[in-house]
Amino acid sequence: MSTAFGDPRVYERFWRQTGEKSTIIIPGWQSMSYFSDVTNICWFLEAEFASEVVRLHTVVGNAVTEGRHIVVGTGSSQLFLAALYALSPTDAPEPISVVCASPYYSSYPSMTNHLKSGLYQWGGDAASFEKEGPYIELVTSPNNPDGHARISKVNRSQGFLVHDLAYYWPQYTPISAPADHDLTLFTVSKSTGHAGMRIGWALVKDKEVAKKMTKFIELNTIGVSKDSQLRAAKVLRAVSDSWEQGNSQEGESFFKFSHKLMANRWKQLRLVVEHSELFSLPKFSPAFCTFFKQVLEPQPAFVWLKCEGNVEDCESFLRAHNILTRSGKHFGVSPKYVRISMLDTDENFSHFLERLSAIKS
Amino acid sequence: MSTAFGDPRVYERFWRQTGEKSTIIIPGWQSMSYFSDVTNICWFLEAEFASEVVRLHTVVGNAVTEGRHIVVGTGSSQLFLAALYALSPTDAPEPISVVCASPYYSSYPSMTNHLKSGLYQWGGDAASFEKEGPYIELVTSPNNPDGHARISKVNRSQGFLVHDLAYYWPQYTPISAPADHDLTLFTVSKSTGHAGMRIGWALVKDKEVAKKMTKFIELNTIGVSKDSQLRAAKVLRAVSDSWEQGNSQEGESFFKFSHKLMANRWKQLRLVVEHSELFSLPKFSPAFCTFFKQVLEPQPAFVWLKCEGNVEDCESFLRAHNILTRSGKHFGVSPKYVRISMLDTDENFSHFLERLSAIKS
């Protein structure tokens, strides 16, 4: 379980430093209603949260928000399901195929199939998808698990694209341009590290799609926790503030902190792996980051480690050395690969490196 | 939309009076992890919330918690869907039927059918359900929309029962005994009035069912907002405290406040309806309430109003008089009935009474 989600414990230290700037106080009488704004398509969206989402995307430059409807969800998982519901044709003779190029996020197949929906079904690897007619393609960029930037794979006219940009933040990857797609998913879990809030958001171009996604969330959970939306607003504001004030020496900015931290971890990891003939890492190309205004290397939230040589089952091999990972087979590829979180606590990350470097061939 | 859920704005006044006792403060670094307790079946359940749930049921005497697993959900809606997922046979040749005696909660059919699941499907009115084999019966007691106490209707051996006890609280109905069922749903929306929190809980006897419900919530939203769980814990604690301290004159208790308020509203409503030949209300029998230790009348969260005489479409008739209601047809019965919330603000409730009493035959 604990290897499944990449628990973002690594950011706790930053948030301890911010003190009251990120503390929220909610009196007992507040946010009692189901409704936030009945004139908005997404009637349970807190205005404060929505405006901090727009502001943060403007500060970071990672997504176009103009001409988009914001739909808030209980994490981006719920928005992923809402998107499937909204994009599936209602009167199709058979379920629409949902595909993603492998290696893909290990939860996509089970999230898509667990209710045996007649609207949509998992169609497997986008690279080998041949079926005629409409389909939904998930484009995760940077990709979970392997960290590579991606564009859509199935290049046909009847495709609906869902862009899962959970990791398109400057601490993980150079920001190349504001994402400008039909339907884009983000989440606080990976951006600020607040996984326990369960808050995600979708930027949706088409009004009818935004309406249907909202309808799904109404049927699923009658809206999204207001407490967490208000807290997310506070935390996103602190991130934007820290960047703007960071330029005027008011303490460290969140993205500088998190970028430095990831850079440091990746440097340590590369040292260990380069000294070993047993393992290899994906190769990334440096690129210009419009946010940090310099050429930078990707430093993904996950290690996508390959066991070289004779080891066929990398997960079992590492488990024997007390390292818990998630096998490549869950991601639609060979068990020679495993995924390991780079977002765990300092203590756990140190243990991981120690154990990894102690393995001799 | 705003007539669909029965927004519980009525309790705001109580929570304003409680001041700091119900205020929550969450620093930015808290509750960042996905996990609450990995040793618990429901690994995203906050221990503080769980213990306040147990305490409140003990104080009120409305449910047995011993020998039960607590599963927290994003409102009881999510737990309803989790229960369907958990109780559906995995290898059945066709979807299991989900039934409820009419009039039933208007969202049950669409929540059950919106994904065209191959696991379960809406089977309609439990009273006329004849199909052989396994089925799921929803028992809502007191019932939404009509306020009557209920027991299961389909009396056969292969049924799974889901007891939706959202309204089994002393302000709405006399508490007769602690509910002692296999799977029971509760929610803060109707108990304390905090609909915006989206927090519900299930008391589940069978360990495997609790595990599957937890799995559903993992696939649906990867857990439940920790912020709202912590806030719910605080609010439930304030309710229990107010009852225990109320007996020692420390200010009004929540249930005395809310019971008095509902009693007052029902009294006013009965006066208006009794003076009219156009409308009638359900008849309720008084019963001994083990919580208040006296014989009391039910005073439901909804009015289930019947248009007498020639009016066939009660919703349209009332809309013409500026009263927004929800037609009986959504609840599986005649459009001569409508449902109206008794939990709206004082202002809206007054408007409703004024408008209703102004209608002449």
Automatic annotation (TrEMBL), chains A, B:
The keyword Protein biosynthesis does not apply. The keyword Iron does not apply. Residues 4-359 form the Alliinase C-terminal domain. GO terms for biological process: amino acid metabolic process. GO terms for molecular function: carbon-sulfur lyase activity; transaminase activity. It holds the Pfam family Alliinase_C. Keywords: Aminotransferase, Pyridoxal phosphate, Transferase. Its cofactor is pyridoxal 5'-phosphate. Transmembrane segments: none annotated. InterPro entries: Alliinase_C, Alliinase_N_sf, Ethylene_sulfur-biosynth, PyrdxlP-dep_Trfase, PyrdxlP-dep_Trfase_major, PyrdxlP-dep_Trfase_small. Belongs to the alliinase family. Homodimer. PANTHER family: BIFUNCTIONAL ASPARTATE AMINOTRANSFERASE AND GLUTAMATE/ASPARTATE-PREPHENATE AMINOTRANSFERASE-RELATED (PTHR43795), TRYPTOPHAN AMINOTRANSFERASE-RELATED PROTEIN 2 (PTHR43795:SF22). This is Tryptophan aminotransferase-related protein 2 isoform X2. The gene is LOC106761959.
